[in-house]
């Protein structure tokens, strides 16, 4: 059987929320009348970030979750039209966001009727053919396109398991529903499930096990939970603070909320459950004024142009605590559930070193240390870019989100969302991709229109 060859103006590698946001923009752009082909291992609109085997909440509120910059209230309209009584500031169950993304994908492909095709497969490489067009190769066949956008999400779950726990490791980040049921049933107050991690992925996994009647101990090197918030403050349009020093950028942004970066970082970490109780009480009376600046801070950090990836990495290291606790804060509803479980003796938080030294028996061990970043594309030759492994030269990404060839020339291969993480600090945030989309659509060079054609090769 001959493999499939598809011709299109634009090839989008990815099929999740970021890819759908980009496809929506192409669909409504009056400057683009060409064809688009999307490639992903799953149906278009299936977003891993919003799929979980339990009713986890999104970590961003309704007004931050629109798929288009043109209408920030689109997700809210989706909810209200279906009778879901959520306000713009609410944190919704993830399955509602997943439904929104899938419906948006269906509407967009209908709008692009005759100009869009979705292929299910695993792209492995991109090479330039004799006509100087790009060919995206993989299990889907080949796509010939003028421009390529890498819009896939994060990599696989990190599984860094300390040696002493490996014999009891049975699951992965946000493991299957069956795994979670089994873990919960085997656990009790004396033999909890050990979850390696204490940030948002770990909190979600803990809530799933607690919801099933189990007991959980979270452990990480820091032993500190995310801060607690009731809103994620929107971006302030006239906010212009933007320096190459991220501590200055954040501190200046926090000044309006009558707190400082140093004050927030100094909160006692030695008593995680005591700190959880304090931050819950603070959130309930609206005393956590820092939360109203988070959207502005994220946008300011992402607007910063760093000299190179090493500069970005070093700057982010200086604000690691703020990033992991306050930018990645958890909704109040989730925090209250953890507090109630702690009062029942079913939830605890420890530093990993303490867990390794004590004699507490654990029924099972799960990891929730987040996800690996996407694989950085690498040049095998000047005209072949691998998306898997085996390359020799990492592809350099510019601040305009275009990859450069080994000789520094433009390629018309672009990055979106989490794929832009080497030049954009905070990418695990849908709004980042949504704000990148309009400039990306304008920047992509579009030669003569290419009819969408699929044919045997």
In terms of topology, how is this protein built?
Layout (H helix, E strand, L loop, with lengths): L3 E10 L3 H12 L7 E5 L33 H8 L12 H18 L4 E5 L2 E6 L5 E5 L2 E10 L26 H10 L6 E4 L3 H12 L4 E5 L7 E2 L16 H9 L6 H5 L6 H13 L9 H10 L5 H9 L2 H8 L2 E2 H12 L3 E5 H6 L6 E4 L10 E4 L2 E3 L6 E2 L7 E3 L5 E6 L14 H14 L9 E4 L1
Parallel strand pairs: 1-2, 1-6, 2-3, 6-17, 7-8, 7-12, 8-11, 9-10
Antiparallel strand pairs: 1-18, 4-5, 4-14, 5-6, 13-14, 13-15, 16-17
β-strand percent reads 15-25%
Strand element count:
18
Give the termini separation.
Answer: 10 Å
Please tally the helical runs, counting DSSP H or I stretches of 4 or more residues. Answer: 14
Average pLDDT score:
84
**Class by alpha and beta content:** alpha/beta
Using only C-alpha atoms, the radius of gyration works out to 23 Å
The backbone outline, from C-alpha atoms, is: globular
Question: Your description of this structure?
Answer:
The protein is α/β, with parallel strands linked by helices and 457 residues long. Helices cover 32% and strands 19% of the residues. It has helices at 17-28, 74-81, 94-111, 177-186, 200-211, 246-254, 261-265, 272-284, 294-303, 309-317, 320-327, 332-343, 352-357, 430-443; strands spanning 4-13, 36-40, 116-120, 123-128, 134-138, 141-150, 193-196, 216-220, 228-229, 330-331, 347-351, 364-367, 378-381, 384-386, 393-394, 402-404, 410-415, 453-456. The strands form three sheets. Strands 1, 2, 3, 4, 5, 6, 13, 14, 15, 16, 17 and 18 form a twelve-stranded mixed β-sheet that branches. It has a four-stranded parallel β-sheet with strand order 11-8-7-12. It has a two-stranded parallel ribbon with strand order 9-10. Strand 16 (402-404) and strand 17 form a beta hairpin. It starts with a strand and ends with a strand. The relative contact order is 0.18. Mean pLDDT is 84; it is low at 166-177.
């Amino acid at each position: 059987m001959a493999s499939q060859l598809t011709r299109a103006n634009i090839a989008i590698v990815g099929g999740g929320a970021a890819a759908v946001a980009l496809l929506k923009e192409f669909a409504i752009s009056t400057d683009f009348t060409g064809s688009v082909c999307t490639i992903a291992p799953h149906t278009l609109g299936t977003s891993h970030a919003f799929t979980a085997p339990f009713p986890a909440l999104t970590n961003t509120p309704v007004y931050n979750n629109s798929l288009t910059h043109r209408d920030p209230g689109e997700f809210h309209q989706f909810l209200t039209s279906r009778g879901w009584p959520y306000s713009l500031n609410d944190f919704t169950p993830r399955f509602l966001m997943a439904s929104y993304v899938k419906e948006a994908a269906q509407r967009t492909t209908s709008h692009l009727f005759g100009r869009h095709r979705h292929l299910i497969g695993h792209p492995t490489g991109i090479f330039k053919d004799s006509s100087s067009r790009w060919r995206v190769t993989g299990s889907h066949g080949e796509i010939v396109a003028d421009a390529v956008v890498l819009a896939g999400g994060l990599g696989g779950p990190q599984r860094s398991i300390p040696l002493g726990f490996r014999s009891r490791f049975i699951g992965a980040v946000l493991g299957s529903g069956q795994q979670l049921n089994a873990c919960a049933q085997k656990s009790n107050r004396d033999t909890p499930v050990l979850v390696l991690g204490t940030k948002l992925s770990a909190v979600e996994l803990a809530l799933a096990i607690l919801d099933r009647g189990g007991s959980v101990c979270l452990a990480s090197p820091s032993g500190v939970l995310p801060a607690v918030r009731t809103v994620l403050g929107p971006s302030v349009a006239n906010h212009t603070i933007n320096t190459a020093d991220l501590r200055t950028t954040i501190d200046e942004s926090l000044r309006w909320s009558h707190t400082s970066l140093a004050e927030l970082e100094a909160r006692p970490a030695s008593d995680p459950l005591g700190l959880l109780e304090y931050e819950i009480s603070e959130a309930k009376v609206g005393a956590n004024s820092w939360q109203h600046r988070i959207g502005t801070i994220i946008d300011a950090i992402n607007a910063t142009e760093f000299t190179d990836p090493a500069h970005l990495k070093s700057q982010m290291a200086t604000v690691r605590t703020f990033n992991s606790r306050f930018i990645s804060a958890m909704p109040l509803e989730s925090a209250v559930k953890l507090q109630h479980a702690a009062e029942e003796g079913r939830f605890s938080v420890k530093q990993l070193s303490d867990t390794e030294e004590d004699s507490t028996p654990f029924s099972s061990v799960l990891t929730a240390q987040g996800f690996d970043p996407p694989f950085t594309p690498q040049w095998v030759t000047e005209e072949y870019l691998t998306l898997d492994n085996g390359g020799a030269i990492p592809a350099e990404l510019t601040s305009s989100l275009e990859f450069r060839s080994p000789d520094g020339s433009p390629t018309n291969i672009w990055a979106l969302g989490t794929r832009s993480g080497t030049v954009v600090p905070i990418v695990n945030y849908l709004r980042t991709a949504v704000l990148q989309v309009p400039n990306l659509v304008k920047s992509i060079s579009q030669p003569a229109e290419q009819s969408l054609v699929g044919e045997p090769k």
